[in-house]
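Page 42, continued from yesterday. The earlier attempt failed because a stray header line got pasted into the input along with the sequence. Redoing it now with the clean sequence only.
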Amino acid sequence: MFKLEAMTIGLIEVLRPAVAKIAREDRNLADQLRRAASSVALNVSESAYARGGNRKALLSVAAGSANESRAALRVARAWGYVGEVETRQAEARLDQVVAVLWKLTH
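This time it went through. Structure tokens are written below.
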């Protein structure tokens, strides 16, 4: 679980420049992306001390927030706020996090 927590913090670090750029064009979208990415990390961290079904529920919420983060990046690209090159690394990290979460919840 510690490795997954570190992955989620790394994801936020990679997202930070894109979020700043998106915020210059669309504060609401940047805020939603910021909240979704934070939710991934916070729910993964909370799940480390949860038991049984609560752990799986928290990890499922984290997976949903990761998917929301991915969608927010795609929306930002569609609006032209950021380019594919700027989001490629973040999307790769999101793919890794989602893959781990999938294994832990299925």
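Notes: Helices lie at 2-25, 27-47, 52-79, 84-105.
Reminder to self: strip header lines before submitting.
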